[in-house]
Amino acid sequence: AYPQSRHHAATPMAEEEAASTSPGKDELRRLIVAAGEELRAARAGGDSGAGADVLARLLDLKQRYEALTGEEFRTKSVKRSRKEAAASGAAPSAAQPNPNPPKRAKQAKVDLGRFTPAADPMQLPPPASSFPPWAPRDFFRFEVLHTSRKPGSRARVGRIHTPHGVIETPCFVPVGTNGALKAVDERQGREAGTQLMFCNTYHLLVHPGPRVVAGAGGLHRFMNHEGPIITDSGGFQVFSLGETTEDDVAEMKRRKVREGNSASLLATGERGAVFRSYHDGTTIELTPESSVATQKQLASDIIIPLDELPPHGMSRERLHASVRLSHRWMARSLRAHLAEPRQQAMYGVVHGGTDEELRRESAEYLATLPFDGFAIGGSPRAERAGMLPL
Q1: How is 44-92 classified by DSSP, letter by letter?
Q2: Angle between helix 356-366 and 316-338 (nearest 10)
Q3: Cα–Cα distances in angstroms (integers) from residue 382 to residues 193, 312, 351, 354, 386, in the given order
Q4: Chain CA centroid to CA 274, Å
Q5: 173-219 confidence digits (pLDDT tens)
Q6: 156-162 vs 165-169, strand pairing mode
Q7: Do residues 146 and 351 make contact, with C-beta atoms less than 8 angstroms apart?
Q8: Measured distance CA(49)–CA(39) in Å, rounded
Q9: Which residue from 270, 273, 378 is spatially nearest to 319, judged by alpha carbons?
Q10: Which of 158, 156, 164, 155 lies closest to 194 in space, CA to CA?
């Protein structure tokens, strides 16, 4: 069912397959593991031709495994086969990774002194006059199909047109944090009626990294996803990884403090924030400009400017300062986006918690900037009673 290349018969794995016309379950498992390692080596070496041949062979082996066992080949089978190979004393193949890889090179220290609060936390953001006026996008638009006739209601039904399809609003948006929906593949997601999918920039920045995703052709090809994708800015981690203060109230999604090489917020300030990666302990800068640059590499349809998500229940003084900081960060994000739109739309995020005056200030300022749409910041669960009227 798969094309054979002129290189096929010359590969060591092909000779092993020919030696056994009907390999058993364990042998197929070993061949799949070796082919997978060979494929990774070919891709790492930039040999697309050989990689395509190995991929075709790998898919064929997996089909044979499923036909023999009645079950799909799973990753844990790979782990099991490696353990069995180690227990039997078998020598690892040349394509297998070094079991004792060299230690990661020491990372240059990040100057945390650059991440200091603004001299004036209430500093106003740049005026609208410093931005170009908003202009319609030929690749992105919103149309209203129906507006509620119910007195006092502003509900509406509409369509958002994106480069990767139409979104019927309102709609449910499932979250694929690391570029995949949990326990649901792309086909099942489509059959369930998924129109817009959400991916988390911070987690993708930590692993596998924006360069890997960009090298695969962006999130759509990386995930094999056909529909529209929206990514956030990573700003949620500014809140969720920080230390709790006496001025904060417990938030439902706050991360628990973990010991060891875990994620943590090292510093935050006017420039942005610095995190320690939960993946490998490296330090990562997240600024308005770097957040946008990452989302450009991810190539999602709708992107979000960097903002700060303050905890529910903070003092009004701190909340007001947070709104102003988010406005300054979003203005910087917007400038970075407008310098290279790349057929992406950017949504501003209205802040202010449940304070009507601050919400009005945020909405009125952001509405003067050339954003393509607007999102409502906040936690509907923790602040439901106050959020619905706003």
Answers
A1: HTT-HHHHHHHHHHHHHHHHHHHHHHSS---HHHHHHHHHHHHHHTPPP
A2: 10
A3: 28, 7, 15, 11, 9
A4: 18
A5: 999 988 999 998 888 998 999 999 999 999 999 999 999 999 999 99
A6: antiparallel
A7: no
A8: 11
A9: 378
A10: 164
Which residues on neighbouring strands pair with residue 215, listed in sequence order?
Answer: none
* AA identity, residue 280: D
Rounded alpha-carbon distances, angstroms, from residue 120 to 141, 243, 245, 321, 370: 38, 23, 21, 9, 26
Distance of alpha carbon 137 from alpha carbon 344, whole angstroms: 9
Q: Can you tell me which residue has the tokens 């930590």?
A: 206
pLDDT tens-place string over residues 233-287? 998 876 677 665 555 554 444 444 444 445 588 888 999 999 888 888 899 999 9
Amino acid at 25: K
Cα–Cα distances (Å) from 278 to 69, 88, 188, 262, 357, in that order, read 37, 34, 30, 5, 38
Q: Collapse the DSSP code of 239 into the 3-class scheme (helix H, G, I; strand E, B; otherwise coil) and give the result.
A: helix
Cβ atoms 318, 247 nearer than 8 A? yes
Which among 97, 126, 80 is positioned nearest to 338, based on CA atoms?
A: 126
Helices (H) and strands (E) counted in the chain, each on its own, are 13, 11
Structure tokens of 126? Answer: 């740049």
What is the rounded (10 degree) CA torsion for 294, 296, 300, 306? 50
One DSSP character per residue, 5-51 reads -TTGGGSHHHHHHHH-SS--HHHHHHHHHHHHHHHHHHHHTT-HHHH
Q: What does pLDDT average to over the chain? A: 82
Residues in a beta bridge with 349: 375
Q: Sheet harboring 141-147: ordered strands across?
A: 141-147, 156-162, 165-169
**Helix or strand (DSSP H, E) at 345:** strand 345-350
Cα gap 157→320, rounded to integer Å:
33
Cα-to-chain-centroid distance, residue 161: 22
Calculate Rg over the CA atoms of the chain. 25
